[in-house]
């Protein structure tokens, strides 16, 4: 029995949290991110597209595929079967804004999936435009809203392109 | 509220269909594919094997593993936990015929998994034989049968090597 | 020394061919594939797009990404660093034709990469259109042309959308 | 009907076992593995760390991530959604001992996930220490205990660092 | 010949840039990123660590592994063999700063690899700390410096933790 | 300038060794591993095969594919383009022995690739036989021989199934 006494000490390492006792629930998350670029770059992209081809569809696909890979990209994430991944974009004064929505029926939340979708979509836009503008920066990637789980609904910001009601249909 | 009005427009991009409202059901799919080769090649392979080793077992494994990767290979597919993947082969007059069967309990069908299994099995046969015959072609990859889902049973062709009854045992 | 005598027998298994003695050369490959669909489906897709969004760009990206994964999808392929992957499409009387071009500087050819790009692009089109037409089939996936390697240039068919001259620029 | 007669023969190939009829149950598995090294190496590592940085945390993460990839690494394994992966380490007289615990709610057991976690953790330790000691060996990777499934609880050895009671909390 | 006339039109799709004519050169890139968090969170993490275990080592490993996956994460990136990936961290007034350095001998630059390393390291920190602080945001991911390639050395910001001279040793 | 003084301290984390200054050379490695099983199991497998189908070919393929994934499985390994991966098997008194050989032209050695091939081949055999024998163990995975690199040829054991001379042909 004394064998177990040092468990606590060796147990200080990284851990994939045990979610076995958590209920399977509908989980949803919205996240956003931005790419800042010069105004001339933004106008160039809006009218002529990127040097590597259509930006938004490519970034959208990259974001969807990355969301599905979250469990292998982020070391301590649980791999989840996602029911939906959605990304929308809007041009802003200083560049592009990306919004992502993910939902699943799972024992743990899907905010990392939404944040990963946004991050990889931003990286993809960067990659497609870097020949045009080297001074771009990816900014303000954050969680907007979260549903499901012990804490119920958490609202940190306002989804603008993918409205919560849509998700309920 | 008017923020949402342009959702429909921005929402025209690629989408991973929302399956959250679909029921979890037993889903099954059968698919087939063919590799055409010259008669001398086919006879050579049947008697001497391929230059890279045993063809059928290698193609079978490649197909099984590819079925499990469908969710990352096909951009808008949902990743699914498969309960069974099975591939069988038969020599035909003009080459080889591959049949695949996949089943899962899921919110969406498994036909893409069966078609992916068949396609990668065919590519693997091609790879193993290309030193012998350069004029091979992969042909007629199609869905044969599908069970589960709103549309119930769909029969487009006849599975010949993996019979539906087997699956019910 | 007699230890080695049964090598030949045990050596009959699958093998990843030893390419260490082959020269590093510029390798190029062109491949094609087709998706057959009903005329009404094809017209619907041309005018209204697919239920899952823009077809051609999605299939193109799926094909590019699959080409890069060939070394893990096809068990006995060598993983290669590709210099270029390109996919083009044209509507045909009975559906869609996909053409892929791949090039690399490598010890082995890139035909499997081109064929894999074509196959996964076809599967992606199938996935995006299957809600509209269940009777589609993927057909005639084959190598068109190959450059580099011991056998020099091999011409099996005519690339129509990505011309060899382009590649030389 | 005679079409089916040769199924049995062609059906002798590799197969991913059909688990569709098995009940979804809580499955748990414990496994262990060892890395033997010289005493001087072990002491060096304990006091100075490995040439590539902190050993135990790196091996832990590699083991966790590998457990999640088991379904694609081991050809006939079913991909599972894991609820928890845990790895603990202890220094022994002749090196290091790794213990892994995995749990999931699934139709099939998780022993391959635990064994894969242990194996990749051992390979990672090897990789981080190989500049110091070339004569290391990985030894005695085995299943310790298994819960869930038709056969109920199976005890082959004694988990020392991750006690079964912990798992039940 | 007229077959080729519509190439230009169909050729407007996404493309993996042809790098076959670019010289193989030593390529280096430095990038940075930030995670903003509340001061109490930052102090908590510095003294007590994250709820999921040691943060910095975990984020470092996630960043290293993500850099190696850049070619499959970012759709139009070329897969490269990296010679070195390095990540360093420093605590700042409003959170944590991540710096990444990547080098390779390749036909194209490694800035996407450095930016991907930084992004995934930031996501990993977020994941490990989200139980403590929900209002974190990932900010200002950008390229700092780039060496190799047609444009020679490009300096956009100052690497602070991984100095250029180190790289030359 | 003083900014750099704490680099050494922050630099204590895990690191992917910088191999940029190492010469590109022909690298080869041989490794071995064992699976211990009861005599009755071994005889059963030799005469009747495993419950999941042909063991050796499946394990061989799993080993080949794992070798190609070494750079993503083992966190600090460099991804390498392998020229050849070969696995051979022999039945022993207490089970099965696996031998792997890997070669590449690279800046760093391929021993981790050979050890990973052996480990995953052993895990695959375990997976295919676990329904027959639960008391199997994987044992004595170690490097046998290594060629190329600063230290020249290193001989730790005797390859028995894949002889060094073969490799030179």
State the order of secondary-structure elements of chain A, H for helix, E for strand.
HEHHEEHEEH
Distance between the termini of chain A: 54 Å
Largest sheet features of chain A = 5 strands, antiparallel
Rough outline of chain A = elongated
Structural class of chain A: alpha+beta
Tell me the number of helical segments of chain A per DSSP (H or I, 4 or more residues long): 5
- Rg of chain A is 19 Å
**Whole-number mean pLDDT of chain A:** 89
| Overall helicity of chain A | 25-40%
Question: What oligomeric state is this?
Answer: homohexamer
Largest interface: B-C, 48 and 48 residues
Unreliably modeled segments of chain A: 1-11
Per DSSP E runs of 2 or more residues, the count of β-strands of chain A stands at: 5
Record the strand order, biggest sheet of chain A: 2-3-1-4-5
Q: Which strand-content bin applies to the residues of chain A?
A: 25-35%
Layout of helices and strands:
6 copies of one chain form a homohexamer.
Chain A: H1 7-10, E1 25-36, H2 39-48, H3 55-73, E2 84-92, E3 95-106, H4 111-129, E4 137-147, E5 154-155, H5 164-168
Antiparallel strand pairs in A: 1-3, 1-4, 2-3, 4-5
Helix pairs in contact in A: 3-4
What report would you give on this structure?
The structure is a homohexamer of 169-residue chains. Chain A has 169 residues and is of the alpha+beta class. Helices cover 34% and strands 27% of the residues of chain A. Chain A contains five helices and five strands; from the N terminus they run H-E-H-H-E-E-H-E-E-H. The first copy, chain A, has helices spanning 7-10, 39-48, 55-73, 111-129, 164-168; strands spanning 25-36, 84-92, 95-106, 137-147, 154-155. A five-stranded antiparallel β-sheet of chain A has the order 2-3-1-4-5. Chain A is elongated, with a radius of gyration of 19 Å. Chains in contact: A-B, A-C, A-D, A-E, B-C, B-D, B-F, C-E, C-F, D-E, D-F, E-F. Chains B and C meet through helix 3, helix 4 and strand 4 of B and helix 3, helix 4 and strand 4 of C.
């Amino acid at each position: 029995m004394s064998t177990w006494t040092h468990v606590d000490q060796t147990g200080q390492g990284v851990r994939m949290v045990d979610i076995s006792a958590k209920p399977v629930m509908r989980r949803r998350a919205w996240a956003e991110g931005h790419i800042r670029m010069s105004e001339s770059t933004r106008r160039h992209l809006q009218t002529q597209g990127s040097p590597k081809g259509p930006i938004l569809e490519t970034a959208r696909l990259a974001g969807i595929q990355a969301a599905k890979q979250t469990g292998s990209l982020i070391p301590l994430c649980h791999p989840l079967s996602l029911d939906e991944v959605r990304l929308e974009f809007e041009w802003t004064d200083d560049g592009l804004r990306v919004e992502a929505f993910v939902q699943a029926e799972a024992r743990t939340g899907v905010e990392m999936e939404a944040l990963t979708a946004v991050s990889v979509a931003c990286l993809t836009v960067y990659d497609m435009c870097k020949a045009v503008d080297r001074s771009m920066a990816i900014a303000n990637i954050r969680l907007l809203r979260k549903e499901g789980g012990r804490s119920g609904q958490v609202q940190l910001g306002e989804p603008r392109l993918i409205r919560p009601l849509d998700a309920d249909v």
